[in-house]
Design a protein that fits this description.
about 280 residues; five-stranded mixed sheet; alpha/beta; globular; about 45% helix; D-Maltodextrin-Binding Protein, domain 2
Length: about 280
């Protein structure tokens, strides 16, 4: 009887050990399982019901604040089309241009629409949509009364040059004129940089090609004297790895381009800014 009891005890112990080992094996296996997948940004946007777009609203006709205090411009129209394609509301967050990429990486915004040019340096940090227009990298704007003084890139040597911080125009100026000219970086093109030029404290400003044309068209005191760089264009900044959102953005760009609506948006928004 005692021996039988001892045997029963050993069987019980074995069962308990088996259960513990089995449980431990299950725990170990479950601990190696992949965690639940994080929802894509597109899913988050749909769940939130709002697409958050970052811009720098000092760059007409692409993005600016109109007389009624509303965000306006080419990029704002495109942003609205993307939000409609997703089926959500649109929220615009205005900030310094140089802060946009970090804001996108930090998840503070979902997209960048700010006449953002696709460069290899930026591509290391964020992804890009298809391009939606082509123009020269930059243009030089001066007072019309001094237009004869700057006729080539070499004419910029020794001059006071204004650029916007974080732009490819600033990058070009530093690479090509660093140590040869006084380069001053500004947070915003208008009114700060333009008014400094008109006051005579700058000899020239280097801005985007289309921006330069618009500035000179609106202000009879200004003139575009030089185009710089190669033909390139802007794209929409997208967080890396968000392929679903990228697909939607590219679809909107393709639809607007193939129907001719993109050209109409550019024409209408430029004329609106020019007051025509």
């Amino acid at each position: 009887m005692a021996a039988k009891s001892v045997g029963a005890v050993w069987i019980a112990v074995a069962l308990v050990v088996g259960i513990v080992v089995g449980a431990g094996g299950f725990y170990a296996a479950s601990s190696l399982m992949a965690p639940p997948s994080k929802p894509s940004l597109l899913e988050t946007i749909k769940s939130r019901g709002v697409l958050i777009v970052g811009t720098s609203a000092d760059w007409p006709p692409f993005e600016y604040i109109d007389a009624k205090g509303n965000f306006a411009g080419i990029d704002m129209v495109i942003a609205d089309r993307i939000a409609r394609e997703i089926g959500v509301k649109l929220e615009i967050r205005d900030m310094k241009f140089g802060a946009l990429i970090q804001a996108l990486k930090a998840g503070q915004i979902d997209l960048i629409l700010a006449d953002l040019h696709h460069t290899a340096e930026r591509e290391r940090e964020i992804d890009f949509s298809k391009g939606y227009y082509v123009a020269y990298d930059a243009a030089v704007v001066v007072l019309k009364s001094k237009a004869s003084q700057i006729t080539s890139e070499s004419s910029l040597v020794g001059k006071n040059i204004g650029v916007q911080q974080g732009t490819i125009q600033e990058e070009w100026a530093k690479e090509n004129l660093g140590g040869k000219a006084n380069i001053v970086s500004y947070d915003r093109v208008y009114p700060e940089m333009v008014m400094t030029l008109k006051r005579g404290d700058l000899d020239a400003i280097i801005v985007g090609d289309i921006i330069a044309t618009v500035l000179a068209s609106r202000d009879p005191d200004l003139a575009v004297v030089l185009k710089i760089g190669s033909l390139s264009g802007a794209a929409i900044g997208i967080p890396q790895g968000e392929e679903e959102l990228k697909y939607i953005v590219n679809k909107v760009i393709e639809d607007l381009t193939s129907t001719g609506e993109m050209n109409r948006i550019f024409e209408e928004e430029i004329n609106k800014w020019l007051g025509q």
